[in-house]
Specification:
24 strands, about 25% helix, hydrolase, Apoptosis, Tumor Necrosis Factor Receptor Associated Protein 2, Chain A, 5-stranded antiparallel sheet
Length: about 500
C-alpha cells in the first residue's frame, strides 16, 4: 500500500520513474491511435497519474468517488484535466464538475466557478443569492443556481445546445436527506449564455442543518452537462468525431441528411465508387457528383460542398433554396443510381439493398376465391396517428379490411361477395426505409397538418410476424439512422442521427 512505502527507497524511486515513462508513452499514443482506443488510453492515463500521485505523496486518497470524471472548483484531483497532455479531452461531449462555495451564509454577490471545458467551450457554475417579493409584501430569499457557457466570448455568432442537471449535494446521510437536483435544456448563445433557476431552493432550506446541504458553512454544487457540437466557433469535426458535415446551400438540409445516411450505408457507398464515370460529363453526371461527395466525406477535413451534385440534377440556384420532401428525393436519387448502374459490375445493387416485396390480396369469405398481386417497394409508409410504436403501426398496416354490405367485392362470375382486403409482406430488404406519416390531410381545416405525437421505435426490431412466410434468416433489424423534421407543413429543418 502506498501509505506504507518509504519515499527514500531506491526501488520505489525506480518504480515512480517507470510509471512516469509509461505515462509519457500513453500520452504520445493518444494522438496517433484510432478513435476506439482513445477512451481506453485516457482512462489508463488517469489511473497512472493517480498512482504516481499516491506513491509520491506517500498517502492514500479518500476522494475516489470524484477522481475519474469530475472537476471540483475547476481542478481535478491528480491535475488530470488541466494537464496539457489531456487538452484533447476538452472536446468531450459531456462532463460532470463541482463548485464548493465556502462562507455560504455570507454570500452577497454572484460567484463563478473556474471553467470546465466541454465541446471546447468553457462552462461555469454561477451561484448567487436572489430575493423576490411575496404577496404579503415580505421578501423571499433563494439560492440562484445557473450554468454559464462561453460567458467571456466577444463573438455574437456562436451557439451550443445542451442538456444539464443542476444538483445541490447532500453532505450528510440520514432518513429524508437527499441531494436536490433540477434539469435544464437550453440553446446557449451570446444573449442567453447562462440558464438555470433564480429560485433553485429556498435560502432557509439550504441553511437548515437538518436538510444536510450545508456543512461548516460550505455547500457543494454539481453540474452534469451534455452538449451538442457548437456552431459559429472553431470546431474541428474531423479531429473530434472522425467525420465531417455537408454545407447547406440554403434549404438543402433534407438532402444533406439523406446523403449522410446513404454514405454510411457501406455497400451502397462501395457500389457508387465502382460506377464507371470516366466518360461522363462532369457537369451533368449525378453518379460522378455523388462519387465526389462520398470521397470528400471520407477524406476531407472540412465540411463538404454539394453544389456540383445539385447542378447535376439540373437545379438552378433558386432550387437550392426550396425545400423538398426527403422521401420523394430518395426515390428520385435511387432511381437515377439504378439506371446508371445497369450494364456495369454493380448492376442490381439498389434493388438488392432496398427493394422488398408485398402481396396485395382480396379473399372471399364464403367461396374459395381470391385475387393476389405482388408489388415491390423501396419504403413503407406507416400511419402513426393514434399508434404508440412501430409494432402497432405494422399491425395496422397488415390489418385486413372487411368488404361487406354495400361494399361487397365483385368476384366476377361469382357475383358480389363478402371478402377481406389487405396486404402481407413477402420479403423485406436488407436496408429497410420506414416513412412515418406525420403529415396527413385534415378534412376540418382542408389542409395538411403535422402530428407531433410521441412515437416509439426501438434500437432492434423483429418483423417476422408481418411476413407471409417467415424466412430461414429472421427479419431482425438494427436501427441505423433517423431523419428528423422539425417544423410544420410550411417549412422546417431536417437533421439526421
Amino acid at each position: 500500500p502506498p501509505g506504507r512505502m518509504n519515499r527514500n527507497n531506491a526501488g520505489l524511486n525506480y518504480f515512480v520513474i517507470y510509471l512516469q515513462e509509461l505515462r509519457a508513452t500513453v500520452v504520445a499514443t493518444i494522438s496517433r491511435c484510432s478513435r476506439r482506443w482513445v477512451r481506453f488510453c485516457r482512462y489508463l492515463l488517469i489511473r497512472l497519474t493517480r498512482i504516481i500521485f499516491m506513491v509520491e505523496t506517500d498517502a492514500g486518497n479518500d476522494n475516489g468517488a470524484i477522481m475519474d470524471s469530475q472537476t471540483v472548483n475547476g481542478e481535478v484531483p491528480d491535475q488530470v484535466i488541466h494537464d496539457a497532455d489531456m487538452e484533447e479531452d476538452e472536446a468531450r461531449s459531456e462532463a460532470t464538475f463541482r463548485y464548493v462555495v465556502t462562507n455560504f451564509s455570507k454570500l452577497k454577490e454572484s460567484q463563478l466557478s473556474p471553467p470546465c471545458y466541454v465541446r471546447n467551450l468553457p462552462w461555469k457554475i454561477m451561484v448567487m443569492p436572489r430575493i423576490s417579493p411575496m404577496q404579503d409584501r415580505q421578501q423571499q430569499r433563494s439560492l440562484g443556481f445557473f450554468l454559464q457557457c462561453n460567458g467571456e466570448s466577444e463573438s455574437s455568432t456562436w451557439s451550443c445546445y445542451a442538456n444539464a442537471e443542476l444538483t445541490l449535494i447532500a453532505q450528510k446521510e440520514g432518513e429524508g436527506i437527499n441531494t436536490f437536483c433540477r434539469k435544464i435544456q437550453h440553446l446557449f448563445y451570446c444573449k442567453e449564455n447562462d440558464w438555470g433557476f433564480s429560485h433553485f431552493l429556498a435560502w432557509n432550506d439550504v441553511l437548515d442543518p437538518d436538510k444536510g446541504y450545508i456543512k461548516d458553512d460550505t455547500i457543494i454544487l454539481e453540474v452534469h452537462v451534455v452538449a451538442d457540437a457548437p456552431h459559429g466557433v472553431s470546431w474541428d469535426s474531423k479531429k473530434h468525431t472522425g467525420y465531417v458535415g455537408l454545407k447547406n446551400q440554403g434549404a438543402t438540409c433534407y438532402m444533406n441528411s439523406l446523403l449522410q445516411t446513404l454514405y454510411f450505408t457501406n455497400q451502397l457507398r462501395k457500389a457508387v465508387y465502382k460506377m464507371p464515370t470516366e466518360s461522363d460529363d462532369s457537369s451533368k453526371s449525378v453518379a460522378l457528383a455523388l462519387q465526389r461527395v462520398f470521397h470528400e466525406l471520407q477524406f476531407c477535413d472540412k465540411p463538404v460542398g454539394t453544389k456540383k451534385l445539385t447542378k447535376s440534377f439540373g437545379w438552378e440556384t433558386l432550387d437550392s433554396f426550396m425545400q423538398h420532401d426527403v422521401q420523394e428525393f430518395l426515390r428520385v436519387l435511387l432511381d437515377k443510381l439504378e439506371s446508371k448502374m445497369k450494364g456495369t459490375c454493380v448492376e442490381g445493387t439498389v434493388p438488392k439493398l432496398f427493394e422488398g416485396k408485398m402481396v396485395s390480396f382480396i379473399k372471399c369469405k364464403n367461396i374459395d376465391y381470391q385475387s393476389t398481386r405482388v408489388e415491390t417497394f423501396y419504403d413503407i409508409q406507416l400511419n402513426i396517428k393514434g399508434k404508440k410504436n412501430i409494432a402497432e403501426s405494422f399491425r395496422d398496416y397488415v390489418k385486413a379490411e372487411v368488404l361487406d354490405g354495400d361494399n361487397k367485392y365483385d368476384a366476377g362470375e361469382h357475383g358480389l361477395q363478402d371478402a377481406e382486403k389487405g396486404v402481407i409482406f413477402a420479403s423485406f430488404p436488407p436496408v429497410l426505409h420506414l416513412h412515418l406519416m406525420r403529415f396527413q390531410y385534415d378534412p376540418v381545416t382542408d389542409c395538411s397538418v403535422k402530428f407531433n405525437d410521441r412515437f416509439e421505435f426501438q434500437e432492434k426490431v423483429n418483423l417476422n410476424p408481418y411476413l407471409q412466410t417467415p424466412e430461414a434468416t429472421p427479419a431482425d433489424y438494427t436501427l441505423h439512422a433517423v431523419l428528423v423534421h422539425s417544423g410544420d407543413n410550411h417549412g422546417g429543418h431536417y437533421v439526421v442521427f
